[in-house]
Amino acid sequence: MAFMQLEEKISCAVSAVIGKEFKASIGPSVGGGCVSDTRVILSKDSDGLKFFAKIGIPSEVSMLAAEYYGVLEMYNTKTIRLPKPICYDSTDRFSFLILENLNMTNRAGKREYGLLGKQLAMMHRCTSDRGFGWHRGNTIGPTPQLNPWTSNWTEFFVNYRLHYQIELAKRNNLRLEDEATLLQKVEKLLNQKQNVIPSLVHGDLWSGNIGFLNTGEPVIFDPATYYGDREVDIAMTELFGRLPEDFYTAYNDEFPLEEGYEQRRTIYNLYHVLNHFNLFGGMYGRQAKGMMQEIMEFI
């Protein structure tokens, strides 16, 4: 009964966007979502239309709305492929986000990864005249991500990325000796990079959020969108194992990274490792402490 109500709501919402009647049939779970239930939405008619859905509880509608607008912001740059965002809404039992359904694979070669690097660099050239942040908060996984507009990148990253995650980690019983000194060191290191450009970033760019169409066209998805130092995206592609070298070569040919990136990479990835500790605990706490020690030893 609840799914019948959801199908009716999705039918109305999709029909309003595509300009013709669509009768939704919720297909089986397809997996892949770390937060929401992910499903293919089929048409009850024989027109072959399909969409991809993320389905959550009603209170998650704000999170799904933020993802809708984040995907839309990147989609509208026309620099790199994302699933086209269709709509979002909720019922009294569910919330949902509907996206274009793309058949993707993670199998790709030199040309495809080179194209990914070039197109990501093109997206990173899309900037904001409001500074660093975004027009709304969103999430990194299920963790809230704060995005108040801030004129200074170092201030933004220290306050709304690292310090926020450190405070969560302390509440989750991660013992830290002197986080104030760490944050001061991070400030010093980030301030060495002058004139940081507020680039449109994916925000959660690891291999699991990258796919390829059968034409070889790269696709990125599941973002945690904001405007920040573009290096945060490149850094995360190295956190769980580097992408093929063709990606980095093509990116640097299009938009070269600046001196000092190797140190900033550790700083930027500490944010994600702390978030993983706050979500999963265990070994990520030890990894975070190791990264903190490494940062303190940077010259």
From TrEMBL:
Coiled-coil residue windows: none
Enzyme Commission number(s): 2.7.1.172
Keywords: Kinase, Transferase
Pfam families: Fructosamin_kin
Keyword Oxidoreductase attached: no
InterPro entries linked: Fructo-/Ketosamine-3-kinase, Kinase-like_dom_sf
Name assigned to this protein: protein-ribulosamine 3-kinase
Species whose genome carries this gene: Galdieria sulphuraria
